[in-house]
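This part of the workshop introduces the protein records we will be handling. Getting from the letters to the tokens is the skill we practise here. The record below serves as our worked example for the rest of this section.

…
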Amino acid sequence: MTQVAKETGLSRESLYRALSADGNPSFATVLKVTKALGLRLHACAAAVEG
């Protein structure tokens, strides 16, 4: 968590709060953590049948 905090520019405490079961992280925080972990987030649209 210390390394993720350094790479995201966020404090460890705020990361623990945001990522806890009761946390509500902003999308920006999710993106920062995803990037720090070397992951990519991919969104795709599903076909909607009407």
User: Anything to note?
Assistant: The CA atoms of residues 24 and 42 lie 20 Å apart. The chain has a mean pLDDT of 94. The chain is about 50% helix and 0% strand.
